[in-house]
Design a protein that fits this description.
By secondary structure, the protein is mostly helical. It is built from 31 helices and no strands.
Length: about 600
């Protein structure tokens, strides 16, 4: 008997084709690692979008440089200048300045936009960290937990909540991208990847000087984790050498006069700050002694010592681990902290926590190889313990973030955290709206440390407010031993001008203009000072000096008709007819009116 297959009855619902065909074995979106890598940090850091500036460099880069940042054409200019001042600056970081210019086009000087940018950079770095950890053969669950820990850890809140901390965020992005692209190149042999990693490495160098360490880390990973032969790395070495050469050339051409720090000075600072390595480690394992503006002297070694002992114990009792990865992790931590140790005290005496952003990853590599993530533990136990730690750290971070809410809150907290910091006390005073209180805090900062950078500068400003010009000059000149920025020279020039010491006023004003040639108002003032000096010299019958000062006026104010006229007259009166005629020719070419008395002198023949 033939079996008759009856047609199936379909409801109207069954006859409709699904809009999206679900792939077999696909997981819900909440099971994606990237969902959690974005959710947790967004939940933690969302409130920073409502924060103001802290007045620790962020106001300088966003508000004070707003005029510069508004012009897109200055993207090319930043390759020819330092970070804080155009010339004689130890820091060369054009990528950061480019970022400020680009964000200014969208947000102007509104802080919320820059905070949003920092959050986006952080999310990008966190996702790249997860990808990188998987690339170096760390199990996915371990990689996810470590990346989540990194994303919400309290010691890294400064990097995300403080706008200038984005320099470390951007460096991390380019650093991890370089490592991932490099590993991919040796796994796939695709030539374009070698070019891509060259670009990201060059951008990392142009972001922050510490990027010079990237080739060391990349080489160690390739050689000892992936067993790549050195002979096969030659194209990679060539690309790194080229990137370093381009970076060095751009840096040198931006300020060929800068000679860098003395080697002896760097070594002395490094030796004195070695305990900072232990202090930083303590903040990673026990992030309960954080500080807005940490001073080396204010941080106890107790937590750091306990953290060091704990890390050594974890490695020692872990029977099975990847030894090369542990060593690379420790080197990673130390090498990226090395610049912190070498910066001289007078340049920067703060042990800022944002500098842990890159070194932190080195410790994560070490932890990944310890028994904390051993396969002998049941997965659910690891997840439960990790969730508890993440929750505790998230709460600490959430509370800690509030100290970055606004200027006054930030500096009040900095003083509470570091009572021996003249730098914190000084800035607490600067941000105070009460004039009497401001002066009091500045004096207190001066009493704590008279050699603190900028404390003499602000003592000078206090003296100027009281019209004590001599005292102001004293403090400003003391500040010259620690600082070298345009406004210091401009203030000295103003004081000397009001004290009628015009030669000194002109000298300091010219020094300030040399540091900041964009200060057009200062150039006009200098021309005026030189004009007064010329008048004074002429009245004292010092015609050569008068001629010199008038020539300076024409250099700084080429449209000063009176200066050209007086200069020609001085030359005629001192029988320097050739020089006088040269001035008249310049006046003719420039369209400057020539008075009748000059015309008469120019046509008169002297015997």
């Amino acid at each position: 008997m033939t079996k008759v297959i009856q047609p199936k009855r379909h409801s109207k619902q069954h006859l409709q084709k699904p809009l999206i065909k679900k792939k077999e074995g696909s997981k819900p979106f909440w099971q994606s690692p990237f969902f959690w890598l974005i959710l947790l940090p967004v939940a933690l850091y969302a409130k920073i979008i409502f924060f103001d500036f802290t007045a620790l460099d962020d106001q300088f880069f966003v508000i004070d440089h707003a005029g510069f940042n508004q012009r897109l054409g200055n993207i090319f200019q930043v390759f020819n200048q330092g970070l804080f001042v155009p010339k004689n600056d130890i820091y060369y970081r054009p990528v950061f300045l480019i970022d400020m210019i680009i964000e200014n086009q969208f947000f102007g000087i509104k802080p919320w936009g820059y905070h949003l940018g920092s959050l986006i950079f952080h999310l990008t770095a966190v996702c790249l960290l997860f990808v990188f950890l998987k690339k170096i053969k760390i199990p996915e669950t371990t990689a996810l937990l470590l990346a989540l820990l990194f994303s919400i850890h309290p010691v890294l809140t400064q990097t995300v909540a403080w706008i200038p901390g984005r320099n470390d965020l951007i460096l991390m992005i380019f650093f991890l991208a370089t490592l991932i692209l490099t590993i991919n190149f040796f796994q796939t042999s695709k030539v374009y990847l070698i070019f891509a990693q060259f670009i990201t490495f060059l951008l990392a160098l142009l972001t922050k000087e510490t990027a010079v360490i990237i080739p060391v880390i990349a080489f160690l990973l390739l050689r000892f984790v992936f067993s790549v032969r050195i002979s096969k790395m030659m194209p990679l070495f060539a690309s790194w050498a080229l990137a370093l050469l381009i970076w060095y050339g751009l840096r040198a051409s931006s300020d060929p006069s800068y000679q860098g720090m003395l080697f002896q000075e760097m070594i002395q600072s490094g030796i004195a700050r070695i305990p900072a390595i232990i202090q930083y480690l303590g903040k990673i394992f026990f992030p309960f002694n954080l500080s807005a503006v940490p001073q080396f002297e204010d941080i106890t070694l107790i937590w750091g010592s306990l953290a060091t002992l704990l890390l050594i114990t974890l490695v020692a009792i872990s029977k099975s681990y990847n030894k090369p990865l542990v060593i690379i992790g420790l080197l990673w931590y130390f090498l990226f902290l090395l610049p912190v140790l070498l910066v001289p005290k007078q340049l920067n005496n703060q042990i800022y926590e944002h500098r842990l952003y890159l070194p932190f990853v080195g410790i994560l590599l070490v932890l990944s190889q310890t028994l904390l993530f051993s396969e002998k533990w049941k997965k659910r136990y690891i997840l439960i313990v990790s969730a508890g730690i993440l929750l505790i750290f998230m709460v600490v971070s959430f509370i800690r973030l509030d100290c970055y809410r606004d200027r006054q809150t930030f500096w009040d907290r900095a003083v509470a955290d570091s009572p021996t910091s003249a730098f914190a006390k000084l800035n607490q005073g600067i941000q105070s709206k009460d004039t009497v209180l401001r002066e009091k805090y500045i004096r207190q900062a001066y009493a704590i440390d008279r050699d603190e950078m900028l404390v003499n500068y602000w003592m000078g400003i206090n003296a100027e407010r009281k019209n004590k010009k001599d005292s102001a000059v004293y403090y400003y000149e003391k500040e010259l031993a620690f600082s070298n920025f345009p406004d210091l020279y401009f203030n000295l020039s103003r004081c000397f001008f009001e004290l009628n010491k015009l030669d000194s006023a002109a000298w300091y004003l010219s020094k300030g203009i040399a540091l900041d040639p964009t200060k057009k108002s200062a150039v006009a003032v200098l021309a005026n000072v030189y004009f007064k000096l010329a008048e004074s010299a002429y009245n004292r019958s010092k015609h050569d000096s008068a001629a010199y000062y008038l020539r300076q006026v024409t250099l700084f104010d080429p449209e000063n008709n009176q200066a050209y006229h007086n200069l020609a007259m001085v030359y005629f009166q001192t029988n320097r007819r050739k020089e006088a005629m040269e001035v008249i020719e310049i006046m003719k070419k420039s369209g400057i009116p020539i008075t009748q008395d000059l015309l008469n002198l120019s046509t008169t023949t002297f015997h």
